[in-house]
Structure formats: C-alpha cells, structure tokens
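[09:14] KT: can someone run the structure on this one? pasting the chain below
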Amino acid sequence: MEKREIELYSSAVTLSDMEIFVFPELMYSLVLANIMSPRLWAWRDDPWFKGIRQMRPYRRLQRLKQYIMDHYVFNLDLETWGLTNRRRELERFDGIIDAEELARSNALFGYEGDAYYFDIDIRTHFGLDKYDSEIIPYWKTETVEAMDAFRYREGFVTGAGECVSLAALYAAALYVVAGIPLEKIFLMATPLHSQNFVDIDDGILINNRRLVTKAMWFNGTQISGQARRALENERVTVVSHVSGWVHIMRSRATIDPEVYASFSDKLRCYLRAPLTPELLGNFLRQNPKCRQCFVVRWPVRGVNRYIALEQVFSFEQDSPYKVTDNTREKLLATIPLEMFDASCCRRKIVLDDLEQFVSGRAIDLESPDDLAALKNRIGDVCIRAADMVDQLTRFCHTEPRLPSADKVSFEPEPEPLGLSVDMEREDVVRRLDSLRGSSVTADLAFHAWRDLSRVSCRPFVKAALERNPVSAAGAKDLTEDAVIELARSWPDDSIYDGPYRMAQPDEVWNFRRGDGFEKALMVANILRVRGCGPMRLDLTGSEVRLLAGNREVCAFSTGKRPRDRVWEL
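[09:31] RB: done, structure tokens below
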C-alpha cells in the first residue's frame, strides 16, 4: 500500500477524530460497521422497541433517544485513549493534507472557534492546559462494541462514547431499529462537534443525546442554546450521507449533488423562522445581556405595574407557565405584588410595547426598512439597538457555514450502497461485501468492523503498534512477566463477537478483558514501546504464541481465527 492508502485503512481501525477529519470517507464507514454489528440488531428484540415501526417517525426517534440516554453517557476524557503530539501527526499526514489549512479547521491543531463560543481557553476546556501545547489527545471514535464495553471501566455503569460515536450510533440505529431510511439521515461535523440532521417533518437535529425539533431550536432554553452553539459559531467541515461525503478541504466530493442541494435547503429552512412576539421573548430568554434592558407591564386593579423581565424569567423556571405564550398572565399572578414597581424606568424597554410593534408591522428581518424601524423602536437608551437587532436576526436566521458546492467537483461512487430498511443483517453484510471492489466506503467498513476474515491484518497491526499509547503508559512500571500475568488474570472475553473480529491493545487494557490473541497483541504493543525488536504472532490451532526472535515471550489460548495466521510485528 502507498502512504495515503495504508494511513487511510489503518485509520479505519483506530477512528480518531483527527483521522475522520483527514479522511472524510471514514465517518460513514463507522456507521456501516455499526449497521453490520449483531450487537445493534439485538436491540430489535428488546421489549422497549416493540411495535416501533408502527409508530410515527418522530415517536420512533423519541423511543430510540430514550434507549440511548438510558444505556450511554457522553465521555470525552484524556485518559481513555491517551495522547499524541502535533509534530508526530503532522508528519504522519504530510503530503495528505495541508498543515496550515488543517490548523485553521481542526480543534486539535490550533482552531479555537468563535469568541462567543469559547470564552475560556480551549486547552483548559479540554483539560489539556496541564500539558505542553504540542500535546493533543487521541480522541478515538468508538464502535458500538467499544461503547458497550465502557460498563467494565471503573466509574461507569453504562456504555459511553464521544459525540462522533453517538452520531454514528444514532444513524445506524435509526436505520436498523427505527426503520428510518438512510437517505433521510445526514451526519455533520464541525471542528468541535458532530451531530445528525434527520429529514422528517420540519427536520430534527440529533445532538449527542438530545432530539431538537425546529420549535425547540427557537425556544430560547438553556438546552437549545447548547444545541445551537456549533451551527451558530463554527463551520461545518464534513457532511456525510449514504450517497457520499463533502469536505471543506477537499476539491472532490462523492455525495450526490442533488441530495446535497436538497439537504442544504432543508437545513437552512430548519434554521430560519419569522420574527414573532413569541420568538422575541425566546430570544430574550437566551440572551441575558439584552433581556436586562426589558420590563414587563401588568395592570393590577386598573393600575400598570412593572417588573424586570429577568425576574419574570426566574419565576418561569419553577412554573408550568411561560413569559412567551398565552400563559403569561397566569405566571405574573404567581409573583408577589411587592416585586412590582409602580413606574417604569426611562432606560428600560417595555416588552409588551415592543411585542405589539413586532406583531403589528410583521417585521421582515431581510427588509432594510423593517430593520431600521425596529432599531428606531428599540432605541439606544439601554443597549445599542443595532447590536440587539443583529443578535436577534442571527437568532431567527442562522446561516449554516456548509462546505461550498461551488468549490468542489462531484464524483459520486459508481454504485449506490443500496441498503433498504426491509433488509436483514445478513443481507446488509452480503451487499456491502459485494461492493468492496467498487466502493472505498464499503471496503473501509469491514476494517472499522474489524472483520479480519475479509481484510488484511496489516492496517490492523499498524494501528495496534502505533496508536495505542494507554496500554504502554499503564504498564510502564510493570516487568514483562508482570504484564503477561496481569493479562492472564483478566477474563478471556473479547468485546467483539465471533472468531474474526478483534480488539486493539488499548481496548483490552481499558476494559480489562480480551481473547488470548488480543492479549498477546497488547503485550507486543507494550514491548514495542520499550524498544523490543521484530516480533511475530503465530496462530496454531487454538493457541497463539508471541515470539521475539527465537524467544517465546508468551502463549495464550484463543478462539480468534483471522485470515492471516502469522503476523509480523
């Protein structure tokens, strides 16, 4: 294999965030690996999903979301998959991707996002401030098997995964369990986040463990504010779909151009809403700087009283009533009368009056005349009206910064994946296997799925010996014999089902279990870091031996049967 090819295929094994950014075809390969997993198809037998395909599509998503919330937590620590450094990774990708553009686009190589999004230092945010600035994390995206295996780690009682892992799991489960066609599911990555857009109803964003409808996008709550951050403040670097991908740094895209155009239009429609009194209130709920300029008027026994909007929102938190709908009167009635003022401060804006103006004029946020009238009505007594109107416009009309369709040549895959929702798992595996010669994505999926009966072991070995720092660091104070005995003490239980699928060394170390073949490979990784020369794994019958020259380092019983019986390490 040439450099790019071996890096691509070995990256399908480790699936770190940086690798998926460099090789956008990997994101959907992970989705396909999860779709092929028996673990995911077993969900369909869970009583929780009984009758799910007879439910309305949104109800199916809600059902699936609750299951994932109950079984997986978000995890993005530095300890799970360890650390690397910029120099090493830039050398690795030299000639594959431009280093300067990489630094401008990827969080791990210098990108620090919009000032609004990052009001704290990004390295402190990620816990990297205690390391040299050249250190970056190996945040690896987990397959469903690795996500499930977190329950074996100390401090976890369920599965876990980071945002790309969750996005890929959702996409696969929507297809396998909920029966949502893959054509309706789009995965989007920004430099610091990954989420899905599902083309049902007005559109639904799946953001880690949340479902965000269009109404929720504009409701002004803290949860929706968190969900909005990535699309409001970051470029979308990759869009991945069953028809292909488009990447902000690639001049070629494989996604169907008509599909991409339709997705772009639907996403923009999802992110736009006309200004109404309710949306004005929702904007103020989410914007503390602007809402401090407002008061609410309430007539009490024929006399107008006034209360700071900030205070009203604080009462809303523990109430079934809201400031922004027709239950405002009921909310105000729950507030003690002594909290109201008899007159309104001149430097405050009466929300009721601005709502009446917005409703009466039917403000068009794309009309210069309407914007000028709105600014004039707000005035500059408390806040610069221009600043508030600009923020309000962005709240109502978020413009996603998608990869430009005008700057790429679309070169779709020669044959569509052709996965329909009525297929069974065996049908899916056969179909993807038949496409391996023509579809890079399908071929990579078998590496991500760790199917060593169909693929060469070489990319798997390269990944194992170059990108598994946790086991080596964890064993640094142990002698060789102690490492081997520790491995023997763990359950002979691979996290990957069947005789052909295999865990990487750090998966064995993190989850304290593995088949004998996996344990022997972990020992080899630790010895390689310590400077051991060429080694070899020999599989004979049900035994695997690790040899260093003519010396037998260790031997384990194994149930794994990879295609290659001798591995040169």
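[09:33] KT: thanks! The longest helix spans residues 57-71.
[09:34] RB: yep, looked fine to me
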